[in-house]
Amino acid sequence: MRSLFALAAAVLLAACHTPPPPAKADAPVGEIKGTAWAHTPQSLAASVQNAAVVLPAQATGGTVYSGKWSTIPASTKGQVPVVLFLHGSSGLGLKAIGEWQQWLAAQGIASVAPDSFALPDHVTYKSPIDKASYERIHALRASEIAPALAAIQAAPWADRTRLVLAGTSEGAVPVARYAGKEFAARLLFAWSCEPNYFVTEPRNAFEADKPVLNVISSVDPFFSPTNTWLGNASARGSCADALKDHKNAVIALIPGAPHTLLTLPPVQAVTGGFLRSVLAR
Fold first, then answer.
1. Sign of the Cα pseudo-torsion (95, 106, 267, 231, in order)
2. CA-CA distance, 178 to 192, in Å (whole number)?
3. What is the number of domains present in the chain?
4. Is pLDDT at 10 greater than 50 in this prediction?
5. Distance CA 220, CA 214 (A)
6. Where are the alpha helices (DSSP H) in the chain?
7. pLDDT digit string, tens, across residues 94-131
8. Tell me, what DSSP letter sits at residue 231?
9. Residue 98 and residue 51: Cα distance in Å, rounded?
10. What angle do CA 119, 177, 173 make, to 5 degrees?
11. Pairing mode, strands 110-113 and 124-126
12. Which of 95, 147, 150, 253 has its CA 20 to 30 A from that of 218?
């Protein structure tokens, strides 16, 4: 893991940026729409069938495949590492997700992003809302991991020894909380692993021996100290405290970046180095 440690040190030195303290302001008024708070067996199955999948050429034996799980080619050639990715609250329509999946494929890594909105009338929200409602949403999202993982483990193109669990924003909460041992590493984008308005408590469940990468903006509008309604006066705005005793963790704080940062060049540089270290044979 020497390369991973070197990467961590470089990132931490580059990310020494403390955002200015936020001015006092009233919290905005939140909003909840939709009526469906939990998946049905049918919608969970559909979340996999409608998943956004990108397979690299090493898996297809030809050109990169981009499409839904339901239309993956029946014939594949080789096994590759796979990232199981949980999207944020805006769903798979976010352009950056598809671009990030294509970038992963260029690294020889397949990716599968389940479609949470396969659930009819899926609840949506404008923050902040009450913590109990957020927790119902986190439970909904956590339920999407098992069926997607089972499908990936049964896929002939998946290297089951090199699976990575990843998520961004809302999707990163269940990644941090996942208690299973099937994944070689975790990637958490735009989430801080801290007590704040978004959770009743973090409930992080990181494995002591498994690498973790956390990437977040120094001025993230939701989870950094620049958010005036964050609900945690001592927040650091990253998973640094949650992972302080984790020897295989990398924390990347990106100065001035937006909430959605998957495709930023410095983020891809850090993520690429981390994945090469974790997935090397």
1. positive
2. 15
3. 1
4. no
5. 13
6. 2-14, 41-49, 57-60, 95-106, 131-142, 145-154, 172-177, 265-279
7. 999 999 999 999 999 999 999 999 999 999 999 999 99
8. S
9. 11
10. 55
11. unpaired
12. 95
CATH, residue 139: 3.40.50.1820
Query: Looking at the predicted structure, is the pLDDT value of residue 246 above 70?
Result: yes
Which residue is associated with the tokens 């180095």?
273
E strand residue ranges, 40-103: 52-55, 65-68, 80-86
State the Cα–Cα distance between residues 46 and 119, nearest whole angstrom: 8
Residue 192's nearest CA partner among 207, 208, 173, 166 is: 173
Q: What is the pLDDT of residues 178-227, one digit of tens each?
A: 999 999 999 999 999 999 999 999 999 999 999 999 999 999 999 999 99
Q: Which two tokens stand for residue 133?
A: 């409602």
**Angstrom distances, CA of residue 98 to CA of 102, 194, 228, 238:** 6, 28, 32, 25
What span, in angstroms and rounded, lies between the C-alpha atoms of 112 and 128?
29
The boundaries of the domain holding residue 59 are: 2-279
What does the chain come to in residues? 281
